[in-house]
Design goal:
By secondary structure, the protein is an alpha/beta fold. It contains 13 helices and 18 strands. A hairpin with a 2-residue loop joins strand 1 and strand 2.
């Protein structure tokens, strides 16, 4: 019989972790990752009860706040009613959730389609790769963006621009061809954001001018590429926001050459930008749309994709085309269905826009005081703050690393309280604070966040 050990101290847990846990699952960005004990709303708490204001919310998976009462209640009800069922059978929540998503996309983009579920975002990306390869007659080449991130499975890492995710493992199929994204702050000097977007579209369109650019058989008009994978706003790349005209130009080129547009909404969906889908800001229609993360507010793994009817109907994508034991699990689909009901009842479009504008103005005020803040930008509550040398441009990863470490000590002053700050780091040079607070964050908590960032800069710049 197995005897459960007595609860370990933190020191004992760290020793056990050092001996028995893989460090390959990204928990060791800091030398001593923080242990947390409880959470509520916008805050995480350690075992001593110290509060940490969270400005990344589990990489934008907990858009609606930790322990959201309405969503937690649904999880409890489902646990007591139908927590498990094999995916060869049906349950109400799966069907209603798929219909809700498909009808929403049809109303917004004008195309009938179907929804296919999986567990994690990378797995849904893998499923989308099968769909576009199948639809294109087996073409395995994709376009994706410099700075783009789509996951770390073998297939997803092939369309993620960071070589470090592929270096040890080689390729499963072909690596994507990576296209310049209009990262205006680090783009060519003298161009407006809109001009830079047009410049990047023109560079992409040039690839199709002659067969010697390597993507098109000009005699038959056949492109070698099946799809272009995009994040409307780059996530891990540093919350880079393109000009409004950019994707219209990209989609025009794709349509001319029969290349599908796959939109990755895993991080920016679920009202992070003030729209249910961030691509709604940019005036183009997806052929495939991938979603995950905040769909269940982080309560139960669930992801999926929507694809146009002609790409996914049962005659072209039959039963067994792809499968996971836990896809469409009833715990996940029940919470996700309630998430979408809640979004339909509450005006997140208005509140996220208002809070995001307020937060962005506060970041601009910080930028005016601190030359080390080179760029700030945002759309809704997807915000960026780029940390630089005192020249306001040269990337300063060292300073941001120091800020992240100091923020986790839990001893910053804000409003007479001592607390910590949870930040996420991204960007091409790993010098960008990517801010993804709870969509339920209050204006008072935004003020608190700005005060904590100011205190953090004061401490770390002086050091």
């Amino acid at each position: 019989m197995y005897d459960a050990p007595a609860p370990a101290t933190e020191a004992e847990l760290r020793a056990l972790e050092a001996d028995y846990c893989s460090w390959g699952d990204t928990v060791h960005y800091l030398d001593h990752p923080k242990f947390f004990d409880t959470c509520e709303g916008s805050y995480m708490y350690d075992a001593e009860g110290r509060a940490f204001l969270d400005l990344q919310m589990w990489y934008s998976a907990v858009n609606f706040g930790y322990r959201n009462p309405r969503l937690n209640a649904v999880a409890h009800r489902q646990l007591d009613r139908l927590p498990q069922v094999a995916s060869q059978y049906l349950h109400r929540e799966k069907v209603e959730l798929a219909a809700t998503i498909a009808r929403d996309i049809e109303a917004k983009f004008g195309s009938k389609g179907r929804v296919h579920f999986n567990v994690g975002g990378a797995q849904a990306v893998e499923d989308s790769l099968k769909i576009v390869r199948n639809a294109s007659g087996g073409k395995s080449l994709m376009f994706a963006f410099e700075g783009g991130y789509h996951g770390r499975t073998l297939g997803a890492s092939a369309i993620t621009s960071s070589y470090r995710y592929r270096r040890r493992y080689g390729h499963f199929g072909d690596r994507a061809q990576f296209i310049e994204f209009p990262y205006h702050f680090r783009g060519p000097p003298g161009m407006t954001k809109e001009e830079y977007g047009e410049h990047c579209v023109a560079k992409f369109a040039r690839l199709f001018e002659t067969e010697y650019n390597g993507v098109l058989d000009t005699k038959t008009g056949q492109a070698e590429f099946a799809a272009f994978y995009i994040e409307p706003i780059q996530g891990t790349g540093g919350y880079v926001i393109p000009p409004p005209n950019f994707f219209i130009g990209i989609k025009k080129v794709l349509d001319q050459h029969g290349i599908l547009l796959v939109v990755d909404e895993i991080q920016m969906g679920m009202y992070r930008t003030g729209k249910l889908w961030s691509i709604e800001h940019f005036g183009v229609q997806p052929d495939v749309l991938v979603f995950g993360k905040a769909l269940t507010n982080g309560l139960n793994p669930l992801s999926g994709l929507w694809a146009r009817e002609e790409l996914i109907n049962p005659t072209v994508f039959p039963p067994g085309s792809t499968h996971s034991t836990f896809n469409a699990n009833p715990m996940g689909t029940a919470v996700a269905l309630e998430t979408l009901r809640m979004c339909g009842e509450l005006d997140y479009g208005r509140s996220v826009a208002e809070k995001g504008a307020y937060f962005l103005e506060g970041l601009k005020a910080l930028q005016a005081r601190w030359p080390q803040i080179g760029d700030v930008d945002g759309l809704g509550l997807a915000l960026r703050c780029e940390i630089c040398e005192a020249d306001g441009y040269t990337p300063n990863k060292t300073l941001l690393d120091r800020m992240e470490e100091e923020a986790m000590k839990g001893d910053l002053e804000a409003g007479g309280r001592r607390m910590g700050l949870i930040l996420d780091v991204g960007g091409y040079h790993k010098n960008v604070i990517t801010l993804a607070p709870s969509l339920e964050i209050t204006f008072e908590e935004i003020d608190q966040a700005l005060e904590l960032l100011d205190a953090l800069l004061r401490r770390c710049v002086a050091a």
